[in-house]
Each structure stands twice: as structure tokens, then as C-alpha cells.
Amino acid sequence: MIKIRNAALVTVCLVLSAPFGIAQTNDTPDATPPITDKGASSTNSTGEGLSIKQHLIAWTLTDQKFVEKAAEGGRAEIELSKLALEKAQSPQVKAFAQKMVDDHTSASSQLESIAKSKSFNLPSALNNEHQQTLDRLQAEKGASFDATYIDAMKKDHDTDVSLFAAAAADKKLDPQLQSFAQNKLPVLRSHLEHVKMLSGAQTSSAQ
């Protein structure tokens, strides 16, 4: 009889303690928040309002990586735009190319100054992807050149905006680099909007 009562008491204790165990588990935050939508925004210690793509960039971003990626993008946009000044057919595309040379030369100079003061390494040449784009553009002319150049600028500035948005919100980044990213982000966004407008105009004229 005593054994039966003891077993019943243990069963009651287990039933009563179960909700508390569940509540304790639910109160423990997940180490990594779930990602459910590619277009959604996420908030973490690196900043607020980042897209999922920017969140992932910020998660692995280092000072050296930001310097390399930013310098690569700036160098490519300058080189491709210098070629566009020579070969572009559309006056609007040439005007955009001149703005790219001016703005990115200024930004690259600022980044180089910060990098040298902190002993960060800068790339000395275009990466393979950008060199292939430059080679392809050198073989094209007329409207075909304009279309390829605009597509390249749209792709590059989309990448730039994601990188600089992540860096601008990344509190673990070097303060000077973060400030540089914050200052240049609005300029890059305006470039992206400009090149999208040019792309739309080309599509309309081709129809």
C-alpha cells in the first residue's frame, strides 16, 4: 500500500513540475534567430534595420575585409567608368560615368588614407570578376557597350550598398571605418538609384 502511495506521489510531482520546465525552456533565447524571409529585416548587435543579406555580411565583417571589399569596388567602378568616358554612346551614360570617376576617386583616396594609417592591406589590382567585366567592355561598342556598363554598375552598386550598410551599423568595426561607411552610404544609394533610372530608360527605348 505504501509503495502504491509513493508511486502516486511521484506521478503527481512530475505532472506539476512539467509546466515549469517548459516555461524555463521557452524563456531561454535562441543563440541564432531564425531566418524565414530573404527580404525580411533583422536586428542584432551589429545594428538595426539590416536586410538579411546585410545581416549576414555584418556577421562576418572584419576591418581588413571591409577595407578590401570597399577598395575593390571603388577601383572597379573607376576603371570601368574611365572606359565608359571613352566608349559610351549615350550622353547620359557618359555623364554618369564622369560622376562615378569623381565620387569614387574621392572615396578611394579617403579609404586609402585610413588604411595606411592603420596598416590595412589594399588590393593592388582588379579582382578576376571585375577584370573579366573590363575585358568584355573593351570588346563592345555603341548601345551594347552602354547596356553592359550600366548592368555592371547596377550590380556593383547593389553590392556596395549592402556592404556599406552592414559596416555603417557594425559597432565592432574600427570607428574610423564605420564613420567612413556611414558618410559614403547615402552617396552609394544615390548612385544605385541613378543607375537604375538609366537602366529603366534603356529598357523603355529598346521597346
* CATH superfamily grouping: Ferritin, core subunit, four-helix bundle
Q: What's the story with the biggest beta sheet?
A: 2 strands, antiparallel
Q: Show unreliable segments.
A: 1-48
Spatial separation of the terminal alpha carbons? 91 Å
Helical stretch tally: 7
Q: What is the CATH first-level class name?
A: Mainly Alpha
Q: What does this 3D model show about the protein?
A:
This protein has 207 residues and is mostly helical. The protein has a single domain (41-206), classed as Ferritin, core subunit, four-helix bundle (Ferritin). It has seven helices and two strands. Strands 1-2 form a two-stranded antiparallel ribbon. A hairpin with a 2-residue loop joins strand 1 and strand 2. Mean pLDDT is 81; it is low at 1-48.
What layout of secondary structure does this protein have?
Blueprint: H1 2-26, E1 41-44, E2 47-51, H2 52-60, H3 63-87, H4 91-117, H5 128-138, H6 142-169, H7 175-206
Antiparallel strand pairs: 1-2
Helix pairs in contact: 2-6, 3-4, 3-5, 3-6, 4-7, 6-7
Q: What does this entry show, briefly?
A:
With 207 residues, the chain is mainly alpha-helical. It has 7 helices and 2 strands. It has a single domain (41-206), classed as Ferritin, core subunit, four-helix bundle (Ferritin), CATH 1.20.1260.10.
Task: State the main characteristics.
single chain; 207 residues; mainly alpha; Ferritin; two-stranded antiparallel sheet; 7 helices; 2 strands; 76% helix; disordered N terminus
